[in-house]
Amino acid sequence: MYALILLRHRLPVEEVIKATDEHRAYLRKLKAEGTLIASGPTDPRTAGVLLVRVPDDNVQQRLTELRNGDPFFQKNVANHEILVWDPVIGQEDLDKL
């Protein structure tokens, strides 16, 4: 299963930047383990977007764990809007990533 996670900043960008290195280290770990497919900030930099892949069993539990492990969540830097996504067109391409 896939999910889009929208990280809406709760603080001014100057405060967000202070937590960004720790947040990106967490994301690099998720990428290395195959959970994170892609991530990055929006333009203008008021939010970020994550595309993740999680096992089909216990989807909500795994997504909650991902959110809870994010330094942006732990430091109350961003709200995490989690959208579970079942791609109909192009899933075979995503599965190759």
Protein architecture, described:
- By secondary structure, the chain is an alpha+beta fold.
- It has one domain: Dimeric alpha+beta barrel (Alpha-Beta Plaits).
- The chain has helices spanning 13-32, 59-69, 71-74, 91-96, and strands at 2-9, 36-41, 47-53, 78-85.
- The protein has a 4-stranded antiparallel sheet with strand order 2-3-1-4, covered by helices on one side.
- A hairpin with a 5-residue loop joins β2 (36-41) and β3 (47-53).
Provide a compact summary of the structure.
With 97 residues, this protein is of the alpha+beta class. The protein is 42% helix and 30% strand.
Number of helices: 4
Measured as a percent range, the helix fraction is: 40-55%
Highest CATH level, the class: Alpha Beta
N-to-C series of helices and strands: EHEEHHEH
Spell out the blueprint of helices and strands:
Elements: E1 2-9, H1 13-32, E2 36-41, E3 47-53, H2 59-69, H3 71-74, E4 78-85, H4 91-96
Sum up the structure in keywords.
97 residues; alpha+beta; Alpha-Beta Plaits; 4-stranded antiparallel β-sheet; 4 helices
